[in-house]
Amino acid sequence: MLSRGKRIVKMVKEAEYEAKKKKLVKKIGISKETEEIQEFRQETSELIETNKHCRFERVEKDTESEPIKFSRDQPAQGSSEIVEMANYQEGSLVDSTAYYEDFTDSIGPIDQGTSSLSERLVKHEKITIENENNSEPVQNLAFTEIVTNEVVQQSPTSSTPLADPLNLSDDSVEDPTYTRSSSSSASDAESLNEPGTEVEDSKTIEKKLTRWKKANPDTWKHNVAKRRRSQGLDYEIKKKKRPAKVPKTVNCQKCRFKCQESFSEEDRKTFCSEYWKLDYIRQKDFILSNCTLKSPERRRAKSNESIPRSNSKQYHFQKNKTKIRICQSFFLKTLHISNYVVLNAFKSRGPSGNFVGEDKRGKSSPPNKTKPEVIDDVKRHIECFPTMESHYSRRDTKRLYLDRKLSISKMHELYLQECERERKPKVSLITYKRIFGVNYNLSFFKPRKDQCQICEANKPCTAETSKNKEAYVKHLKRRDDCYEAKRLDKERASRENNFVFSTFDLQSVLQIPSSDVSPMYYSRKLCVYNLTIYESVEDAYCFCWTELNGKRGSSKIGTCLFEYLNQLAPHVDEVVFWSDTCGGQNRNQHVAALLLYAVQETHIEVIEHKFLESGHSYMEADSMHSSIEKAKKYVSVFAMNDWLNIFRAARSKRKSIKAKPYEVEELKYNDFLDLKELSKSLIKNRSKDTNGEVVNWLLIKSLKYSKKEPGIIQYKYEHSASYCSINVFGKGRPISNQQPFLPKLYKKMLPIGIQKKNDLLKLCRNRVIPDEFHGWYKSLPVSKTAKDVVPEPAAEDSDEEEDFST
């Protein structure tokens, strides 16, 4: 047998359950109780009847709006009740007014208090229970109001479990060791979703991102004018201002109804303003309710009237709940309407006397509107072009990218060719652009390597008028210092045979196959990467590979540099590299580890790697890219050998200078080195230099590696400053024990996506690709997990591999 304290707590919990169940039934339509709930009700029905005369006092106190966790109070005077607290969630509280109305019906008189939804407060309750035969109250018997969370209607894709709507626990009273777990709420929610119980899921409304902003017709001037006109307000249309609707002047001195005596000018203004505040349907109802049809009391024959009038209209206005008849002129001029409005209302009057018509204004289609089937055909054409995700998924951009060779004008040109071939109706370029921009979030990726964000932000300004003058001036100074230092290195290379000046850069991604045939624009193609190294007027190198043999990144760039260093003449003992500041490809710990390794393994004594200012990274190597694009302009490419021939023939032969062709080397998957493993084995410290200063890698402008100082990387933030040193081996590690680990990066050829393979095979079936190449395309490996991404990185983006900033 339970003690009285336990019985009272159980009785209170039963009442709370009843109140919350009523609210839940109204919300989600639960009509059946489970067997467990029925048993619980039977067990507690006697307790409720026995203690129905108990008096409850409610004491409120404010609590802080921090999450409330489940807890239990210390039992008092032999009672072992458990105080449960509901989890407070922002936006999920239910107004407790209705809760206490149901609560008092089951329990007894309680002070009616409310906890409004807007205030988001959780009230702590303290109940002092006093039996009517016993004047001593039972002390320290408290419970906390359990605030029911609204049943959140979630979408099927949401992984968040439903909130516990009942928040009941029978075992919490019987078992003193009971602790409510997070899984119990989920199980309670699952018990509600029994067969026959329907919980309607709300649809997830996600804003569709598009290239252009969506038009808002409500803000257009002519629509604003229409809306104000229908409301009787002043408006402007065709550069003419129209006044607001006010009662017109009327003369009813000879009127037999004495309209002006019955209604003052203030009454007329009130009628007019109230009428124009109504919508279209209610305006018609107002007219029909104040205008009635009556049969003529007498008829007079007229010579010019062939058919006598069957009925007449009587007009009224209401004053002091009494209808007062008025003349037609007074009625129309008071409301500022014409007789046609009244006739139109009676034309659509229903049997019950109300208006049954509809507002047909603005529902007629314009004669020049593009038909829906033509718009669907344009959408189908746009969706035929393959799209790619952003190369750097860490940005979580939702925009998709089209081939960089495409443009809206080019797409429209291909669309017109298709329409003429299939004899279909076509749209203009502006309509094609509008459909493209309003319905799709597509873009043509353009490399932003040569765009300086700082200079673009201060483009309308000068160094003196810029808001951020100091930073802009420093930026321009760094740019000039980089150009001056590069000029000095170039002059030194022309004087000293043992010193080599080289610039390198990764060219814009090339493609296989590549042609101007229209089916090429609708297909995905293989990517070709080309790292160009420009050494001097006589020597220039192309290190190229396809996406089957490797992706881009620091390991691929470092491997190409290592191959280049091994090819240098034996008399060269000092090399300086110049590149841009792309962190994923050039300025990172993997390339630094490779150069640190190369200076020890090759005949080179000193290697320097210098960086240009971001946004101002045009180098001699970029001239190679221009020459290659010119050589490719009128040539079709169907295999890697075609690109190799274009690279070799790209260098022009001028009369004054006989330049050697580019040295071309194709890399396979087993040529690339895993520089990530190399950096792990070599670089143990990169955060502090030998002076204990923190190294900011993102500001470094020059790195130096020397054979005489293994394990030391020298750096400086400005080209005119002196070098500082970093011991990358760390403290307490003998240099002789350093064993670099340099494995291969790939063990087999990389696969491509299934969609790309299907597009390539489709080009083979359509004989766009010559027959002699079909076997190679059919043998390409595929993978379901391979994705097509934008093959062109922006300068400020980071590579998928780790860089110095991490």
Automatic annotation (TrEMBL):
InterPro entries: DUF7869 (IPR057191). Residues 59-80, 152-205, 787-806 are annotated as: Disordered. Residues 152-161 have a biased composition (Polar residues). It comes from the Eukaryota. Residues 540-660 form the DUF7869 domain. Residues 59-72 have a biased composition (Basic and acidic residues). Residues 181-190 have a biased composition (Low complexity). Residues 794-806 have a biased composition (Acidic residues). Pfam families: DUF7869. PANTHER family: DNA-DIRECTED RNA POLYMERASES I, II, AND III SUBUNIT RPABC2, PTHR10773:SF19. This is DUF7869 domain-containing protein. It comes from Ceutorhynchus assimilis (cabbage seed weevil).
